[in-house]
Known about the structure:
The chain has 14 helices and 13 strands. 34% of the residues are buried. By secondary structure, it is α+β, with helices and mostly antiparallel strands.
Amino acid sequence: MLTHLSLRLRIFLFFGFLALGAIAVTLAALWLSYGRAGLPDLLDPFIFAGLLSSFAILGLCAAIWLMFDEHVAKPIEILAAEMRSRAHGGVSRDIDAKVARYLGDLAPAAAGLAGQLGDATLRSAQSIAEETARLEAEKQKLTDLLSEIPVATVMVGANNRIVLYDAQAGAVLAQIAHPRLNACLFDYLDETALKKAQAKMQKTGKEVLAEVLGRDGKQHYDLRLKPLGEGEGYILIFEGAVAEIPPEAARPLVFDFDLLNRPLQELEDRPLKDLCFAVFDTETTGLLPHKDEIVQIGALRVLNGRLVDGETFDTLVDPERSIPAASTLVHGVSTEMVKGAPKIAKAAAEFHLFASDAVIVAHNAPFDMAFLRRHAQKAGVSWDNPILDTVLLSAVLFGASVPHTLDALCERLEVNIPVALRHTALGDAHATAEALVKMLPMLQARGFTTLGEVIAQTQQHGRLLEDLNPVDNHGGTWQAGKTT
């Protein structure tokens, strides 16, 4: 029954029950002694003795519990998190034995085991790396070859979600919205016309030509749809819509074939490894969400536990006011830089589309979401995505007693934040995303395998965000998993 409670809480309850039991035994003994004495005048002394002994027992148990919590329970929690980060998070630095110096030989034994695990992992990683390098070289040759072919191609699953797109198709899709894996094709193309072409293709089992408008009605595309097989989706080719791509530009072939066979599930029941995450950060004119404004939004997408190369969102935002010099010193965005940048309504709407059908992730999410929610009506969007906060994920994995700043989290997980990118929206979002990628297998190792289970765990640490955001300036309340 108590297995779902943390070790420190269980130990606290143990000492609490011990104190109550000792008090109960002491009071019972005093009551029996008073009864056997048969002297009513001794009632007050016996009551005084009972109160004094009760307070003494409470004080003694509290003092011993505090010492035990500080020197045993907390170090065990930290040591477990350190071991887990090495086993599942790819962390390789030595374990600090001083953290668990009161645990006898446990810390050195854990450090030795971590060292052996690291050596074995290194040997395995070297052999895997050699084979991976060979496969990656072959994949890169194929990618370069396909990317040079002047055909804009998209592979779409049976659920109309993008499984693959080449450089040419990415450039074409970008005319409408940011290209992204697992995005619904109807985010880019007119749904009615495309479904009509799909129905014809499915009925005949042959390729179909179709004329389809872009989702915003500004573009016109001639498409060729080729079926992959019953229930397996289709290939979509943009005929005559080859985009001009500079020779020096990256020409990626972006794909994830696991998306072809992914079953439909409720979001909260999906395994963490199958989720898509939009990890973002903002820079602002100040720290007051009810009056300050966003000046920059940066975001990346994490899919199947990895960062998707090339799928980033990075924009300056015109706050329609001057940016204080003190704020510019922090994030480097000046009033001159945002002239001509999109205003918040357009920028927020574009980011909303970038994050559609994804779990939104941020470090101290209530702060960033407060700015976006204040302008939701102006942007014509509703921020109803599930939300995870890496502050709370850090607390779940490493305990509430350690620091949970972005710098502290990245240091624990050996995520490097280049100094030039710190306090830029995309730089901090990238660091948060890398931390998330390392924490996902650690959460699964703890037995939290679905989004719903992780949200339930983070709700136990919601007080951390209340401490970080003591004043609710946007007229809503914060709950782990979503804001309202």
